[in-house]
Design goal:
598 residues; mainly beta; Immunoglobulin-like; Porin; 3 domains; four-stranded antiparallel β-sheet; 3 helices; 31 strands; 9% helix
Length: 598
């Protein structure tokens, strides 16, 4: 009897193991047939038109998995969005039919794709989904998946079609969750995009609210949208100025709201974008401007804009030679990126042979300089009351410009001619009513012809700008040209690095009013392509005739849903006395900006 107990225990243990293994196998089988994601219902399809993008929004019951491809069958260019786990085609067809066909959209077609929904977004011109992101439920709405479309060149479109084309005899890649796919660039260069395709990209967090850069879309409920930002800026100068008056630091506050109205048919649009800054140390830097106050009407291929507008031309990074219509806002920064609003009437026609545009400008905006209590100021005060003009009608002289822009193969071409008041003044030495020395601005009439080219060859961009300016004084020509090469997906991740090099030339040589008469620009741009849009640009301009160097650092990152922090630093090194930058050679500075978007 004593030997029977161990045998019974062994039998019980074997029976327990068999039961346990059976249960584990049952659980494994159950898990293998259980869907990973619940069925997604598409609740609504909406579209919205904005000045810089066309928006498509899907309201869904859950986070939607999707895959994006770009196709071109010769008749239509289209973006295809395959949505997984969405077997509700009939309902979606009805929703898509009521969505407004506006902006870049020619039509939205709904098809079946192996039991799920396929959105075919037919385009009026080549475009890309340059950004997509999900929003959490709020204000009575479910999850929303947002797709923002921007126009691109034919060369960039061909690249996207090639990148997203499935390999022959190979299964298409697995769908991925929505990911943010911006490749940030400066305003002086066209935007580049990478489709939300590779399954190795990290899964994003769902955003609470996208009010920073993506104002709420226009829907049938309201034709008005209000967005903008308020900002605090701090500047520190490590070196003392040549004058004892300016302080080595300053703080300022800025506000830029944007009010938009889009008609029900989207053929008419109104925009109002004022801007104001208050500087605690330099009252001359405190200023107010209307960047945009305009009406835009669209009829088929014809578009007209009336009011105050901001128009940018150019492709190069280091110098914006061809950009002529708007005056620089020199009080904001010295990088030529900020512009004053310009009163104008413009008409554009989008033909099969390019876009033909004409501009008529009725009032001239003067270039303003920081005051004697601010940095980057002139050595003696500028007397704006004595401003001189070559034109008899002075600031009311009518300026005009015509421009043609087209895409020829892999090259984007822009050619224009401008006739009117030079945006760059001569500064003449004079005296004010009390006999004090002052600088008197004088604006001459000029004719300027400009050419800008950008060639797109896979990840390689060739950039070129040139102008020929004629006036009653000196005629001259100038150019800037170079390349940008982008390394995408470093180390298998999402970040990119762009390498830039440009040569700057002005045939006036040492007589040039610009410091960039024979210089070399090199830079590196890093874009993390993360949910916080982190990017950094580090660059330098070297004068090839002397020891002068200009170093520049720009970095930015979002903080949460509504904040953005920007850090800039600029240094002037080895500037000789004969260089136009000598008066700013002790104005090295660090600048930090914290903006709250609404």
């Amino acid at each position: 009897m004593p030997q029977i107990k161990p045998q019974n225990k062994k039998k019980k243990k074997n029976r327990y193991n068999r039961i346990k293994n059976a249960l584990l196998m049952f659980v494994a089988v159950a898990l293998s047939v259980t869907p990973v994601q619940a069925e997604v219902t598409i609740i609504d399809v909406r579209t919205g038109l904005h000045p810089d993008k066309t928006r498509v929004v899907l309201e869904v019951s859950e986070i939607a998995y999707y895959r994006i491809t770009y196709t071109d069958n010769g008749n239509f260019k289209e973006i295809v969005v395959d949505l997984m786990e969405t077997p509700t085609r009939n309902e979606v067809v009805a929703l898509a039919k009521k969505a407004a066909v506006i902006g870049l959209l020619e039509k939205i077609i709904i098809e079946d794709n192996d039991g799920s929904v396929r959105l075919r977004i037919l385009l009026r011109k080549a475009a890309t989904i340059y950004n997509s992101f999900p929003l959490k439920p709020d204000h009575g709405l479910q999850y929303r998946q947002v797709f923002d479309l921007k126009a691109v060149s034919a060369a960039e479109w061909a690249r996207l079609v090639k990148l997203t084309a499935p390999a022959k005899n190979v299964e298409p890649p697995d769908p991925v969750e929505p990911v943010e796919t911006i490749v940030p660039v400066k305003s002086s260069a066209p935007e580049k995009s990478v489709p939300a395709l590779p399954p190795t990209l990290p899964q994003p967090q769902v955003m609470e609210n996208e009010t920073e850069f993506y104002d709420e879309m226009v829907t049938g409920d309201s034709n008005f949208t209000l967005s903008g930002y308020v900002e605090v800026e701090g500047r520190g100068f490590p070196q003392s100025s040549f004058s004892s008056t300016p302080k080595d630091w300053t703080v300022s506050f800025a506000l830029e709201p944007l009010l938009e109205y889009v008609s029900d048919t989207s053929s008419s649009q109104f925009m109002f974008r004022p801007f104001g800054r208050v500087d605690v140390n330099d009252r001359d830097r405190s200023h107010f401007d209307i960047r945009e106050l305009k009406w835009t009407g669209t009829m088929d291929r014809l578009q007209m804009t009336v009011g105050i507008d901001t128009v940018f031309w150019g492709v190069t990074e280091s110098n914006h030679l061809v950009d002529i219509l708007n005056q620089d806002d020199n009080l904001e920064d010295i990088d030529q990126e900020d512009k004053l609003g310009q009163p104008m009437v413009s008409v554009s026609y989008d033909s099969n042979f390019g876009v033909f545009s004409a501009y008529v400008m009725s009032y001239f905006r003067e270039l303003r300089f920081p005051g004697m209590k601010g940095r980057f100021s002139t050595p003696i005060p500028v007397d704006y009351d004595q401003t001189q003009y070559e034109a008899g009608s002075e600031e009311w002289h009518t300026d005009w410009a015509v421009r043609w822009a087209h895409v020829i193969g892999n090259v984007d071409v822009g050619l224009y001619h401008f006739r009117g008041t030079n945006r760059e003044p001569e500064l003449l030495l004079g005296t004010d009513g009390e006999g004090n020395a002052v600088l008197i601005p004088r604006y001459n009439l000029i004719g300027q012809t400009g050419l800008d080219l950008q060639g797109t060859f896979e990840d390689f961009l060739i950039k070129f700008e040139a102008i020929r300016q004629t006036s009653s004084g000196t005629d001259y020509w100038a150019m800037t040209g170079g390349f940008e090469y982008t390394l995408y997906g470093l180390g298998g991740g999402a970040s990119d690095i762009g390498l830039l090099a440009e040569y700057l030339y002005d045939d006036r040589g040492i007589q040039a009013t610009t410091p960039f008469e024979d210089d070399l620009f090199v830079a590196m741009r890093w874009a993390a392509n993360d949910i916080d849009s982190t990017e950094v640009l580090v660059g330098a301009i070297f004068d090839l005739n002397n020891s002068a160097k200009f170093l520049n650092f720009e970095g930015s990152r979002r903080i949460g849903d509504n904040w953005k922090v920007t850090l800039d630093a600029r240094f002037f090194l080895g500037i000789p006395m004969a260089d136009p930058l000598f008066l700013q050679s002790r104005d090295d500075f660090f600048q930090i900006r914290l903006a709250r978007y609404f």
